[in-house]
Amino acid sequence: MRRYLVAGNWKLNLGPRAGRDLAAAVGERLRGRTLHGDVVVCPPFVSIPAVSEAAQGDPVMLGAQNCADQAAGAYTGEVSAAMLKEVGVQYVIIGHSERREYYGETDDQFVRKIDLVHAQGMKAIFCFGEVLEDRKAGRAEAVVQAQLEGVLPRLESANAYNLVLAYEPVWAIGTGETATPEIAQQMHAHSRKITADLLGADTAANLRILYGGSCKPGNARELIGLPDVDGGLIGGASLKAEDFVGIVDGAETAATDR
Fold it and tell me: What global pTM score does this model have?
């Protein structure tokens, strides 16, 4: 059975002091518990060293929100996968919808980044999902298929244990539209089928697909209890220890229900 993964994406929030305090608060609430899944926090780059002391292995692991698509060199402002590995990072988010929309990142860059992450022995969380225009035009499944086809078959060494997928219903984030559990399950099942076609049935069956919509303590059990939803990539709710651990609690209940 696939272990759930709850990953907190802090985005452009929390400097070193506040980040350390939040990670410590999450760790304190989870310490001593035997979890059925994995918990990761992904601070901004400058906060990673401060957070690393509180996010070293069980119960809280350390992640990053991005990495460079080059290993080293004259790339001002970039942070390499090797640098992240050196400071204890275990997971790296690649291809988040905000990186696509605001920074124009492409499939070619995602492939290079994921390969570099894998070369360092870290796990990549690859994000994908359709925007509101695509959803309203009935293109949701086609867009997701194109995004997965543009990256997955080109990776050098992807498998179910170094790669995590995260479906983002971008159209339901801040638009007033709602992504129901039924929609979440439909899109996750669709994504798993495409992954099976691209990487093989065994890989798809064991690979974790996270839900990157509005997952909160109140709906975490229902969402993560769906057959093809294996956890959540959490935004705003990851910035409060009580809310984030509440989502982990929901995931725990869903795991024991299965």
Answer: 0.97
Domain count along the chain:
1
| Residue 176 CB contacts under 8 Å (≥ 6 apart), including other chains | none
Q: Which residues are catalytic?
A: 96, 168
Angle at 38 between CA 189 and CA 29, to 5 degrees: 130
pLDDT digits (tens, 9 = 90+) for 104-147: 999 999 999 999 999 999 999 999 999 999 999 999 999 999 99
Token pair for residue 165? Answer: 């997928």
Let me know if 213 is exposed, middle or buried by CB neighbors in 10 A (0-12, 13-18, 19+): buried
pLDDT of residue 1: 82
CATH code for the domain of 143: 3.20.20.70
Residue 38: helix, strand or coil by DSSP? strand
Contacts of residue 21, defined as CB under 8 A and 6 or more positions apart, other chains included, come to none
Residue 178: pLDDT over 90: no
Q: CB-based contacts of 141: which residues, under 8 Å, 6+ apart?
A: 187, 190
Domain that includes residue 230, residue range? 4-257
